[in-house]
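Worked problem 6 (solution included).
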Amino acid sequence: MNRIKKGPPLSESENPSGFPGNGYNGSTLAIRGVLFSLIWWALTDGDTSSWWIGAPAVVLSVMASMALIPPVPLVWSAWLRFAPFFFIRSLMGGVDVAWRALHPRLPIAPDLIEYPLNLPPGLAQVVMINMVSLLPGTLSAELDQRVLKVHVLDSRNDFKSELVAIEQHVARMFGLSGNVNGGGN
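Solution. The predicted structure is:
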C-alpha cells in the first residue's frame, strides 16, 4: 500500500495561519466554508431544516478540500476581467456554431490540434483545460505531458490565438503572468 509522504512542517514565516504544517490562513478557510455553504444552500433550495446534515457536510468538505487542494494565489481582479472575455467569446462561439449547424452546406473542417501549455501543472492547468472545453467549437480531448490536444470544429479558424488568450487570462487569474507567454515554444 502506497502512502503519501508529508514534507517538513513550514516555518512560522511560511505558515502564517498558525495551523501546523499546512500553509492555510483564516481567509482560505472562510472562503471555502462560505463556498461549500452556498453549494449546500443551492442543492437544498435554501431549506433551513436541511442544515442538521448540511453543517457537518460543509465542515467535512472544508477539511477534505484542505487536505486535497493546496492553497493557490488568486488574483480576483483578473477573474473579474476574465468574466466578460469568457462571456463574449462564448456568445460569439455559440452564434458561430448555430450558423454552421443551420447552414445548408454545414461548413465545418474538424481537426485535432496540439497546443503546448506553459501553465504549471495543477489547478491553473485544470481551469485552462475546462475553459477551453466550455467555449463552443472547441473541446479539450487529451493532456499529454504539457501538450493539450484540442478538438476544433473548423481548423481553418485561428484557434491558436484564442488558446493563447485564454492561457494568458488564466495565468493572470493565478498570478502567473510572468511565467506564461502563451503557445509553448
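Discussion: The chain has a mean pLDDT of 82.
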